[in-house]
Amino acid sequence: MRIAIHQPNYLPWIGFFDKLDQVDRFVLLDTAQYSKGNFINRNQIKSPQGALPLTVPIKNKLKPINELVIDHQRKWQVQHWKSIEANYKKAPYWSMYKDGFEKIYLQKWDQLAPLNIALIRHISSILNIKTEIFIESEFNIDFGKNNNRNVNIVSHLGGTVYVSGTGAKTYNKPDEFSERGIQLIYQDFKHPVYPQRFGKFESHLSIIDLIFNCGPESIKMIRMQRE
To answer: For 104-148, where are the E strands, in sequence order?
Structure first.
């Protein structure tokens, strides 16, 4: 049983879904503390000028992710959808996927976590990823903090393998995993290069760039990097 854990980011990049696709169960860590500089409420798409940032404004940043309230003083939903439409309406697979995304952007979202989770589930469905997704707060269990939290979550779900991002090497404690009979392995993500509009290839964008440009081939392009 392979388990991975990640914060519920906004319109996540390709590497997020590469890890999701490699495991049996995936936990969205929605009770983690918001920290400035991560991708909880922002990401990037491709424009003629290069990477274009999209940021969801939030009111109360010093909170856990599942308590973040969206600031609706700015018409961010209209702005984001107009930016997505303007930059992808001529992409090969725009007409195939636009309705599903537009439906999400037409809803009113009071909190950030439900929005991000809805987008993650929708994108997973597009990619036909069958991994079971769990929301940490729905367990109603205090799993602890830091590395111990991850170990406890994996153990609770019956995991025997924990797939971690390489950025976590600085705080992962392999001994704590091995003591609980859990093998710690690291995601070896290789970013695919794919047909993309607007000149020179730009990596590390939201996965919607891959989806609108490559359509049903998107998941194959992700998996090919692991072969």
So the answer is: 132-135
pLDDT digits (tens, 9 = 90+) for 132-180: 999 999 999 999 988 899 999 999 999 999 999 988 888 899 999 999 9
State pTM to two decimals.
0.96
Burial of 160 (0-12, 13-18, 19+ CB in 10 A): middle
CA–CA distance from 89 to each of 4, 100, 210, 212 (Å)? 34, 14, 14, 9
| pLDDT reported for residue 37 | 78
Q: Is the CB of residue 161 less than 8 Å from the CB of residue 181?
A: no
Nearest to 134 by CA among 108, 102, 169, 158: 158
Give the Cα separation of 81 and 102 in Å (integer).
7
**Amino acid identity, position 21:** D
Amino acid at 2: R
Angle CA(50)–CA(119)–CA(85) in degrees, nearest 5?
40
The backbone region for 225, taken as left when phi is positive above 0, alpha when psi lies in -120 to 50, beta otherwise, is alpha
Q: Which amino acid is at 131?
A: T
CB hemisphere CA count around 104 (13 angstroms): 20
